[in-house]
Amino acid sequence: xxxxxxKGLGLALMTxxxxxxFLAFNLPEYAFVPVDSDLIPKMLGFGxxxxxxxxxxxxxxxxxxxxxxxxxxxxxxxxxxxxxALILAxxxxxxxxxxxxxxTAFIIFCSRFLGYKNWVGNILTACIFSIGSYVLxxxxxxxxxxxxxxxx
Length: 152
Fold this sequence. Notes:
The chain is mainly alpha-helical. Helices cover 70% and strands 0% of the residues.
C-alpha cells in the first residue's frame, strides 16, 4: 500500500511530537512559580500531535498539479535558507543580547528579507510584539525570558 503525502507527513509529525513531548516532560520543575516552564512546550507538543492525527486522516488525492506545486523554485529555496540562517543567528545570541532586542531585530530583518516594505508598520509591530510577549511571560506567567543587556 502506497501512502499519500498527508499520511507520511502526519506520521513524521506524530513521531516528532512524541519526541518533543518526551523532552518537554523531562524539563526541570521549579518550586514557587504559578506556571512552570514546561507548560508551553507541553501545550505545543500535544497540539502538534493532535494536528498530525488530523493530517494523517485527512483525504488526499495526489494529482499531478499537487506534485508540481511541491517543487521548490531556486529563489524560494534561497529565501528558505536565509530565514533558517536568521533563526540560527537569533537562537545563537538570544541569551547574550536578550529577548526584546533579538526578537525585535529578528522580526524586522526577517520580514524585510521576505519582502515586506512598510518600515513603520514593521518596526511598530516588532516592538509591540516583543515587549508585549516579554511582559506577558515575565510578569503575567512568571516565566523568565532572557533580559540580556537591558536592565529589566
